Structures are given as structure tokens and as C-alpha cells.
Amino acid sequence: TPNKKIESYFSSNGIVSGKLGLSKDEIKDSFLEKTFYGLGRIPALATQNDFYTAMAFAIRDRVLRQFVRSTQQFNEKDARGVAYLSAEYLPGPHLGNNLLSLEIIKETREALAEVNLDLDEILDQEVEPGLGNGGLGRLASCYMDAMATLGIPSIAYGIRYEFGIFKQEIRDGWQEESTDKWLHYGNPWEIVRPEIAYEVHFGGKTESGIDEKGNYSVAWNADTVIKGVAYDTPILGYKSNGIIMRLWKAEAIESFDFSIYNSGDYYKAVEKKMRSENLTKVLYPNDENLQGKELRLKQQYFFVCCSLKDTIRLHLLQGRKLDQLHDKFTIQLNDTHPSIAVAELMRLLVDEHKMEWEKAWHVTRHTFAYTNHTLLPEALEKWSIDLFGRLLPRHLEIIYEINSRFLNELRELQYSANKIARMSLIEESGEPSIRMAHLATVGSFKVNGVSALHSRLLKEQVLNDFAELWPDKFTNVTNGISHRRFLVVSNPALSDLISEKIGRDWLTDLYKLKGLEAFAEDEDFQKKWMDIKLENKKALSKHIEEYAGVKIDPTMMFDVQVKRIHEYKRQHLKVLHILSLYRRIKKGEGERISPTAFIFAGKAAPGYFMAKRIIKLISSVADLVNKDPDVNGKLKVVFIPNFNVKLAQRIYPASDLSEQISMAGKEASGTGNMKFALNGALTVGTLDGANVEIRDEVGKENFFLFGLTTEEVQQTRQDGYRPSEYYEQNKELQGILDMLISGELSNGDTELFKPIFENLLQQDPYLLLKDYQSYIDCQEEIHEAWRKPKEWARMSILNVANMGKFSSDRSIQDYVEKIWNLQPIKAD
Ligand code: GFP
Prior knowledge:
Helices cover 49% and strands 15% of the residues. By secondary structure, the protein is α/β, with parallel strands linked by helices. It has 2 domains: 78-93 and 128-476, 3-Layer(aba) Sandwich (Rossmann fold), CATH 3.40.50; 496-812, Glycogen Phosphorylase B (Rossmann fold, 3-Layer(aba) Sandwich). It has a 9-stranded mixed beta sheet with strand order 5-8-9-2-1-10-11-15-16, sandwiched between helices. Strands 19-18-17-20-21-22 form a 6-stranded parallel beta sheet, with helices on both faces. A 3-stranded antiparallel beta sheet has the order 12-14-13. Strand 21 (682-685), helix 27 and strand 22 form a beta-alpha-beta unit. Helix 23 (571-586) crosses helix 30, helix 23 crosses helix 32 (768-786) and helix 29 (723-729) crosses helix 30. The structure holds 2-deoxy-2-fluoro-1-O-phosphono-alpha-D-glucopyranose. 2-deoxy-2-fluoro-1-O-phosphono-alpha-D-glucopyranose binds at residues 133-136, 139, 373-374, 450, 479, 564, 667-671, 689. Its EC number is 2.4.1.1. It catalyses: [(1->4)-alpha-D-glucosyl](n) + phosphate = [(1->4)-alpha-D-glucosyl](n-1) + alpha-D-glucose 1-phosphate. One of its GO terms (biological process) is glycogen catabolic process. This is Alpha-1,4 glucan phosphorylase. Pfam families: Phosphorylase.
């Protein structure tokens, strides 16, 4: 029963009805209070981290206020909402973003200055949650920022990995991994909700029979039970709502091991408990072969089961009926990682809530929507029937049932046996397995790709049969980024300059940046623009000197490639370019080369042999170039270790050139490309992913294009590609490739880079050699453009002016209109 006294106090006494922000004095009082009473610290003993934690607690209070207000209003209006299911999130540091959302950055800086503390140093203390691998996880977090800002009734579910993505160090040029202990100093942003907990079952057997009401029913007698406990992190939108990122942590259920306790084997019981808790210990790095990774499948089911049970609880709490679930909720599947949800919802509805199959299937198919993020065949998840059946026997039965009904429909449509086999949820060839992308497609009412090109290829290739069957099911939502985090928070000087010229409306409507076009030719504005870039480059140079030990002249062009290390992203094509410049300078032919610093960062999956060798190659080239007095005045190469959101926020504002050079048809969208351009870097890129749309927006004269199109890539394959021909015909390329096996880069070791050399000469699956000359020619154009600073500044301004489309606010608006069909509600 609601406590009316408390409720009235809440609304009338200003607890949650006050204002959004805080004054300088309020911030100071609250900060001091949290330092002493929240942490119990006397000033003499308080560390910088204590101060950070105290400030985080002070701000969290205000963030929670917005969350409570939003939730109250969603409930009052019985709003239709979204549950976003993602196995990964990369929120980045929270404090800076929350200060912006509350519009109290200036006040906080002043409040801290009054107690002799520096806001930047405090911000620097924050350890970010690395709960994702790369683009997909960061996208989920950008979407949360937009959902909160736009007032979308929503909740985001995921996994509270104790160890996030590994920490990367570079030793002797090689990547070394260590565990990411992001929780070591505690996490002031999260609130544990021990009462929001669900049991998750694994293993055992199913038994069918007639229940007490005389109906056919299936019981799943599992042999393992684990508890999922909710940990909530409030995410605040800009001057708007607060929504919750609810992450599940695995725990042992208390009563579970009673029999063992009673038999006196205490240690065995403890061991079981520890085994349960292992489930959410660690995030799996992607690009690893997940085949047979039992723990990964367990993680996926674990978080899906908790999230669906929680969604149903929230739905029923509003007094709604279960068969209306799809009227009130869309559950968005972020890739196939949570796609087991299709079978789990059927199980919950049919087995636990006793709904008839047809009705349950109707609800299920109208509840889910699925976002695909990749066409790479190796990344399309499949789980072997054997493993799946052992862990989730009931789900296997349900998937068989869904499949058999689906295939019957196809037979009625007179589909050929071949086509039916292609579309089946079960792959029969090789080891029988479940195709999770097919399960997600069949079980969803909408399927979207993440850029116009990717969505087209998805329909034409990977899910072609399904797109022909259900053309209306397929749609596109081009990815977007949080411009508030990646411009306002990360590049305050540029943001202020922009606001000086066009006001601040662009914070909530990025299309307003268009107003900058009027100043693109204004020399005074250009100078201020480039001066800010230079200051950002100085700051990055300082970081590089400290963490990578390389001194860089900030007036050089900063040519940057930061992203996961993967062959399709072609970091090694960039290396070939650097070596071409090196050789030209050595031959005395370098006069048209503009002084350039090549900056790389990114993690390689620990088991990805080629990616790790590419890092070693970059480091070796860095050694060669940086130590050679003939070239090191003109070229510098650096690999900055441990790329994460925090580092990214330093790099984008300091970049001149953004490298987006993946082989066309491979990068589903890319989002780094948007972050660079938003900070005024010019792009060199292929017609891949969202590059295509960026170029359309900024104008082809302001974008450096090279390389094959997707169609030309396909044609090249069909014609029978022989990379060695390019090696033989292009003498410069030959000289460069020979360097890889000459020992020149590796202290005489001719074997070290042979795998890369041989791979390129024999297979070259990502067509580096075919695209090489086009890339080199394009780079010559770039170096020439760099020599005309006014021209460069103009292009840079025009890039920023035309980034309106790439705000995650626009993406979320698209999701609302094309998929979610709901009404935003902004909290006051
Ligand atoms: C994947 C795709 C990217 C895409 C993101 C977000 O990234 O092209 O931009 O998802 O949709 F490959 P990773 O998670 O693999 O970095």
C-alpha cells in the first residue's frame, strides 16, 4: 500500500518538484556534505578519488530526481515504452556528461575552485565502465543519452560484467592484456536493488504431461538455478529525463545448496556458489570464435531471462493484461546477442503464464524488433544444437516448434526445398546449429540495419529470402552519436565558439549547425576555429608523450585511425601508406609530403592472430620512422595504448584527418567516422557504411573518397582476384611489401611479418593491394589540401555544419517513427 504521507511530501515539499540545476553554493554544500557524511573522510586524509566520489554522489542525487520524475510521469500516463536489450554498453565517464545535462559545469568548476580543487583533475579520476567491445556497445550508450533527452519511456537492460573489456598495454610493440578492474574503487553511480531479482534455470530435462486443469503442459526440471540481481545506473538526458540502465549480476541462490550444507560439505557448497557468480565475471572480446563458448550462451540467456521477467513485472504492475504486452512495449534486440528472447518470451507466456501457443506467438512477434549490426559471416551467431540442448532443453523444443510452423508456412507458399533449408532456423549442414539471426528475424515485427548501405545489403544478401517474404518488415535506421558527449563535453572550446555564432539551440537540434555555413569563408572565424584545433592537438600531444613516449609537433597534420583492430578495417593499408612516404623521403622525393603524425589506437581481440600482428607492425614502423633523423621531422607514428571512451574524447577534438578505409561492404555503419567529422576532421574513406551518407551530407568536394565500391568488390571476387599481379605490376608497392620480409622492420627477423606479407600476396581478402594505388593518390590530394590552411579550415567548418543528421537524437526519432510507435513524455 502506498504511503500517502510520503507521497504528498514528495510532491508538495519540493523533494522532486524543485528545479533541475544547482547553484554554485548548493553544489559546494552538497559536495562537502558527501565528503564528510557520505564517505566519512577528514580533509587531511581525503584523496582525489574521495573527492571525485563525493562529487559523483552529490550529482547522482540530482540525476535520480530526474529519474523519479520521469518514472512517475510515465506511470501516470500509462505510456507505451521500449525495453532495450543489449549485451554491451560503453557509457564512458558519467560525471562530465551529467554536469552538462544539469547545465552546471561552470557552477561546479567554481564551487570546486573555492575549495582549491580543479574540476578537470576530479573528472580525470573516473574509471569508465568498459562493458562493451566497440561500436555496438557505444551505440547503445549514445542511444540511452538520446532516449533520456527526448523523453522516451524506456529501460535499458544488460550485464554487469565484473571485468569489462581488457586493459591494453603495449610491450615491445605487442599488445598485452590485463583484467579491467573498473569496480576496484567502487562505483558511485549504481544502486543495487536486491529486491529486484529473478531465478534463471539451466540444464536438466523437460517433462510433458497434463496439468491439474487438464491441459497439456511442459515442465522444465532444471539442474542449476542462478539468481540475477538488478544494479541500476541512472542515465540523464540533457535538461530532461532520467532513465535506468539495469544491469544483471549473477549470484547464487541461498537455499540452493542446502543438501550439500546438510551433508557437511561446506567447501563444495561454497565452490558452487562461486561457480554461479562466475557467470557475469567477464565480457567476451568479439572477433573471437564463440563457437562452443558455453559461458557466453549462459550469459546471453541469463540477462535475457531476467530482463523479460522484469519487463513483464513492470507491465503487470501497471494493471495491464499480459496479452497486451506488445501494445505497451517494444523490446529492441541489439544484435542477435539477446535473440534467445524470442524463445524465452514464448516459454514465459506458454509454460509459466499458460497462454495458448497462437496467442503467445502473436504477442511475441509483435513485441520484438531486431537491429542487425554486421554482415560478416563469422559474426552471425550460431549455437550448436548439442550445447544449446544441454543448457536450454526447453528452449530448444520451443525453437523446433517455431521452426516447424514457420517451415510449414513456407511449404504452403510452394517454396523449394533448397530455399526452405536456407531459411530454416536450424542449419543442418556440418554440425547442426541454430541460426540466431533467423530466429530474431522470424520473431520480430521489424528488422533494421544501421546505415542505408548496410540495410540494403542486408535485404539483398544475408536476409534476402526473408526480405522477399516480408518486405515491410525491413527498414533502416542510420546510426547516430551523442553530440553532447562527443562535442560539448569533449571539445568545450569549439562548442563555445559555435554557440557564440549560432546560439545554443544546436544542443537539442543538431541540424542547427547548418548556421555555421555562413561563416565558412570568414577568415577571422577560420583562424579561431583552427586555433582551437591546435590547442586540442597540444593537449593530445602531451598525453601521447606521457603514455606512448613519443614527442609530436602539434603543427603537423594529425592523421588518425582509432577503432578495433580488424583486417576488414585495414589498419595495414594505412601502414602501407606510411611506408610509401618513408621510402619517398629516403629517396629524396618527399617534397610534396606535408608533415604528418600518424596516430593509431584500438584493441585487438586476444585470440586474433593477424590483428595482434598488425599492432606489432604499427609499432615497428613507428620505431623505424621515429628514430630516423632523415624522416622524423616530417613523419611521426604512434600507437596510443588502451583505447576507450575517455581516450576517444581526447582524440577526436585533436584530429585533422579521419581514416575510414574499410573495404566497401564490410563496415555496417561506423560511428567513429561521425565523431571525427563532428569535431572538424576531414574524412578519407571508402563508400562503406555511413561514410556514404556523411559524404552526401557534407558534399563530395569536402570528403576524400577512394577505393572500390561494394559492387566492384563483388565483381573483383567473381572475376578471380589475384593480388600478386598488383605486387608484380606496382614497383612502389612491391618495394613496400618486401620491407615486411626484409627484416628491416624487425631487427633482421624475416619471419615476423611474413604472415601478413603472405596473406596479402596470396589471398588479400580485404583487397588492400587492389585499393592501394587509389588510396595513395587520394592521400597526395590530402597533403596538397593541407598546404592551403584557409581551404582546409573552410572544409572543416563545412563538415561540422552538415553533421545534423548524425545525432543519436535523429536516430532515436527514426526508431520512434519507424519502429516503436510511441509518444515521448518529457519530465519537468
Ligand atoms: C558494429 C559494426 C559497426 C557499427 C556498430 C554500431 O561495430 O559498423 O557502427 O556495430 O552499429 F561493425 P562493432 O561493435 O563491431 O565495433
